[in-house]
Amino acid sequence: KAKIEYLPTRAGDVIQTYSDISLLANDYDYSPKVSIEQGTKIFQAWFVEYFKNNN
Question: Could you report the per-residue pLDDT of 33-47, keeping only the tens digit for each?
Answer without folding.
Answer: 999 999 999 999 999
